[in-house]
Write a structure and sequence with these properties.
53% of the residues lie in helices and 15% in strands. The chain is an alpha/beta fold. Strand 1 and strand 2 form a beta hairpin.
């Protein structure tokens, strides 16, 4: 059976792989458990964050970049029902601080490149008055995340996303 990773959903990918390994029941059980976890988490998020907006950003050197992934789009925004501060689609290009201020998201999910110049600029920026004007900064809702699992597209990564969302936003 041919598997097209670009067009198949992660659930379908898991089912195709399970079928080739004769582990369909294991995969189906895993998917049922995942769906239960997802539904419980979504219900909790609906109560705690009914109208909150989220902005995913990447910080590199002196710049911010709008960022998303198939996992972020499908799991965080579609399946968990969270609200994007930037609308339905994201090009992934550079974004200026004044544009972030105009969006004024409730939460920022931030990936900071772990290299010296970026880290220096990030430490300096956090002390700036412009940064502190952001609702997310004022309310301590800047959540530093890593590319793993947010930029991996797999069943296991999506389970880790649910765990991280719970850690960051519920616990």
């Amino acid at each position: 059976m041919h598997l097209n990773y670009e067009t198949e959903t992660w659930r379908r990918q898991l089912q195709i792989i399970a079928k080739s390994l004769h582990k369909e029941e294991v995969a189906n059980k895993w998917l049922r458990n995942f769906t239960q976890k997802l539904n419980r988490l979504r219900a909790e998020l609906d109560v705690q964050y009914p109208h909150a907006t989220f902005l995913f950003l990447r910080k590199y050197k002196q710049s911010f970049y709008l960022t998303t992934s198939r996992s972020v789009s499908e799991i965080f925004f579609q399946e968990l029902g969270m609200h994007s501060a930037y609308g339905k689609s994201v090009a992934g290009g550079e974004i200026k601080l004044e544009n972030i201020l105009a969006m004024d998201p409730d939460h920022i999910m931030l990936m900071v490149c772990q290299e010296q110049e970026t880290l220096y600029d990030w430490n300096k920026l956090q002390l700036s008055t412009d940064w502190m004007k952001l609702k997310a900064a004022k309310e301590n809702n800047i959540h530093c995340i890593s590319t793993d699992p947010w930029f991996e597209y797999s069943a296991v990564a999506h389970e880790r996303i649910l765990e991280q969302v719970r850690e960051l936003l519920i616990e």
